Amino acid sequence: MNRKELKPEASPAAAFGERLRRLRDERGWTQDELGVRTGFSGTHISAVETGRRSPTPRLAASADRAFGTGDSLQRQCLAIRQTALLEGFPEYLRHERQAAEIRLYEVGVIPGLLQTPEYAKTLADSDAMRGASTPEQAEEHVRTVAARQDSLVRNPPPLILVVLDESCLLRPIGDRDTMDAQLARLVEFARLPNSVLQVAPFDMGARRPFTLPVIVLTQPDRTLLCYAESSQRGHLERESAFVLPTLTAYHQLQAEALSQAASVAMIEQLRKGRS
Fold first, then answer.
1. Distance from first CA to last CA of the chain, Å, rounded?
2. How many CB atoms lie within 10 A of CB 206?
């Protein structure tokens, strides 16, 4: 039986998965047997061990009881959940890195894939100042933004379609130079051969199909995934019955939004107004 090689250094979740497998192997239990002892399926145990799922507090507590490890797995799980990445986001990133097409809609801030380093750092530092994250988590956030952008520089590159709510452009982040550089970055992005950039203006009103950010990924085999976030966690949806309506709504959003030419003209006008 071929077993996936684990890389505990890849992430805190991967380290948890490697430890879970090691403890299980030491006792000679199968994934199904551990599942029975913890109240989870063997498939779920497998997903956590290989890093495809992040561990939950309930699983960590059940595994501590099964292994007799006190609360060490629970503490390790808590450390994972306190990183700068939302629960569910690391799983999304693995799919983003290999996506053939990325469709995203953002509200309020420029999305990470298009952020300049200064813009990303300003957002992260602001979270740390408000106590919403630690300085270490702020640094992790900036590194993640850079790593996401680097992972998309490949051959062939993915098609990236972006619709920004007008609020993304009007909300000032950092000083004037930071915002001007960020707006210039958007104009550069729109010129790429594998990108489309549109702005959803405020006057779309009720015709706007989304109220929260959403991302739809098309994988190389043409399967679709949808990712959305709340303030506390992210959710990756694979079921086509849920993903296809989101894709349809995204197409409707694109039809109602400004054209790329009109969107770039709006951005350039904002830059002139800031000078």
1. 64
2. 5
Domain range annotation of the chain: 8-81, 89-115+154-274
Residue 79 identity: A
User: Quick one: average pLDDT of 115-135?
Assistant: 89
Side chain identity at residue 110, one-letter code? I
Structure confidence at residue 258 as a pLDDT band (50, 70, 90)? very high
Residue type at position 172: P
How many CB atoms sit inside 10 A of residue 162's CB? 25
Q: Which of 113, 97, 89, 106 is nearest to 219 (CA)?
A: 97
Query: Which residues make Cβ contacts (< 8 Å) with residue 176, sequence separation at least 6?
Result: 274
**Which amino acid, one-letter code, is at 230?**
S
pLDDT at 1: 53
Q: Please name the CATH architecture into which domain 89-115+154-274 falls.
A: 2-Layer Sandwich (3.30)
Indicate the CATH number for domain 8-81: 1.10.260.40
- Predicted pLDDT of residue 2: 61
Strands 214-218 and 224-229: antiparallel
- CB distance 217 to 227 below 8 Å: yes
Integer CA distances (angstroms), 142 to 38, 172, 227, in order = 36, 18, 20
19, 59, 69 from 72: Cα distances, Å: 11, 12, 6
pTM summary value: 0.70
